[in-house]
Amino acid sequence: MSAAQDNDLPLLTVRDVSRYYGARLGCRDVSFDLWPGEVLGIVGESGSGKSTLLNCLSGKLEPSGGEVVYQTRHEGALDVYRASEARRRLLLRTDWGFVHQNPRDGLRMAVSAGANVGERLMAVGDRHYGNIRAAATDWLGRVEIAADRLDDRPTAFSGGMQQRLQIARVLVTKPRLVFMDEPTGGLDVSVQARLLDLLRGLVRDLGLAAIVVTHDLAVVRLLAHRLLVMKDGEVVEHGLTDRVLDDPQHPYTQLLVSSVLPA
Amino acid sequence: MTPPAFPSLQVDGLSKTFTLHTQNGARLPVLQGMRFSVSPGECLALSGPSGIGKSTVLRLLYGNYGAETGRMILRQDEREIDLAAASPREILRLRKHTIGYVSQFLRVIPRVPTLEIVADTLRNAGFAGDPLPPSKAMLTRLRIPERLWNLAPSTFSGGEQQRVNLARVFVHPFPVLLLDEPTASLDAANRQTVIELIQSAWARGAAVVGIFHDLEVRDAVATRLLDMDQFRAAA
Predict the structure, then answer these.
(1) Are B22 and A249 within 8 A, CB to CB?
(2) B172 CB neighbour count, 10 Å cutoff
């Protein structure tokens, strides 16, 4: 079973990652392993350092200390911040994907929905117009956007549709690891539910590994296998999602869990 | 796939105290120095009044709660895993293949149809073949009407939800079963079906730990009783 062999090595190894902004702490001494197909949730209130951490993990923000090592498909382990800028950019275009909270940060608003998806394929070397258009149509379908919207610009889409388009744009290149920053933030509750169902299905069907930052415990209960709880830049609790939520140990996690209003 | 070897469980020195930081650090000791073992083909019934920690034991074994002290050794295929120290990844793998847990209340991913909930157990366990026929058979056996199969169970009655909960666990021959009042809201016919399912589970070699308030059910399925009073933690 090749899948089992692939699973023997962590996809991402994070050791003692810290990031300071001058004297101010962003995040400190974060370490964990992420395996293929695993979804890790990072929760905490605003200012807890979770977005800083996500940026450090995803190659966007160089940590002040520590290392992020990615297990590539064919070339062994890659120390993300010791690799060249070009190598890191290639990684971000091919093996990795990033879903922004605000779809406008992940989409090009001036080009059509189809072009938004097709562009990512062209960036990894696909040149056949028919293939690109077919892949774009297929992906719009998978994120439940009707084929007749292919030539519309995202400015004509609702917030939920924009977010689904962003997800199609990220996943079309078949990344192995996806970073998501509050993927359901800013959406109506009913739209959130639909997006969550979609994400859960895609992550599972594609066997994606993902790191999801959110302040919404319902999102991680649904998507994440494991949780990191952050407070004041540090990880205060780490473990199996249902254990962290049902048997929280740290005072802050207990406060977080007990603060959720029952539906 | 080779059939799973029969497992055994050995629990020793298991303790659990809840510390409620949001309520002035109140400490609730529940279990102290608990020990027991379950062999393949046994059904151990935890007995004692409510609040004594029976459900807590099952949640500790399932990894839903973290043990404070002690070991919970699962022996299978000449491997030993201490459930008290297992990594999240290991626990998740065991939940897919090895340990089935019927919780007191159905907790499922919202909006997923009943038939898919049951079939997912088989998919997760790596079932070779179409998971739908055995899933339908188990739902039928537990008398969930076919018109409900494509609906999510959130609006079902208590008894129907309980039976969905049972179907999604009993559809796979889990080598270890943890059962928290599996017949609490069932009518006589369904209760009899569940008794038969549990009996055939330990008869095929599963190690079963359960909580059965219904004495008739307990007498029918349990091969041994464990009085929890001896492990009551001093408050």
Answers:
(1) no
(2) 23
- Quick one: B139 exposed, middle or buried, by C-beta within 10 A (0-12, 13-18, 19+)? buried
Task: Determine, for residues B88 and A240 on separate chains, whether the beta-carbon distance falls below 8 Å.
Answer: yes
CA distances from A141 to A44, A127, A136, A146, A165 (A): 34, 22, 9, 6, 10
- Contact with chain B for residue A204, Cβ under 8 A: no
pLDDT tens, position by position, A30-75: 999 999 999 999 999 889 999 999 999 999 999 999 999 999 988 8
pLDDT tens, N- to C-terminus, chain B (235 residues):
445 567 899 999 999 999 999 999 999 999 999 999 999 999 999 999 988 999 999 999 999 999 999 999 999 878 899 999 999 999 999 999 999 999 988 888 888 999 999 999 999 999 999 999 999 999 999 999 999 999 999 999 999 999 999 999 999 999 999 999 999 989 999 999 999 999 999 999 999 999 999 999 999 999 999 999 888 876 5
String of DSSP letters for chain A: -HHHHHTTS-SEEEEEEEEEETTEEEEEEEEEEE-TT-EEEEE--TTSSHHHHHHHHTTSS--SEEEEEEE-SSS-EEETTTS-HHHHHHHHHHTEEEE-SSHHHHS-TTS-HHHHHHHHHHHTT---HHHHHHHHHHHHHHTT--GGGTTS-GGGS-HHHHHHHHHHHHHTT--SEEEEESTTTTS-HHHHHHHHHHHHHHHHHHT-EEEEEES-HHHHHHH-SEEEEEETTEEEEEEEHHHHHHS--SHHHHHHHHTSPP-
Contact at CB, A193 and B111, closer than 8 angstroms: yes
B55 backbone dihedrals φ, ψ, rounded to 5° = -65, -35
pLDDT tens column, A148-169: 999 999 999 999 999 999 999 9
Radius of gyration of chain A (CA): 18
Is the CATH code 3.40.50.300 the one for domain B43-65+89-231? yes
Residue of B nearest to A190 (CA): B111
Q: Per-domain residue ranges for chain A? A: 109-173
**Minimal CA separation from A75 to chain B, in Å:** 25
Rounded Cα distance, B143 and A48, in Å: 49
SS (H, E, C) A163-202: HHHHHHHHHCCCCCEEEEECCCCCCCHHHHHHHHHHHHHH
Torsion-angle region of B117 (φ positive above 0: left; ψ -120 to 50: alpha; else: beta): alpha
Sequence spans of domains, chain B: 43-65+89-231
Q: Would the ipTM clear 0.90, i.e. be above it?
A: yes
Counting as low any pLDDT under 70, the low residues of chain A are: 1-7, 261-263
Give the tokens for residue B33. Answer: 């120095």
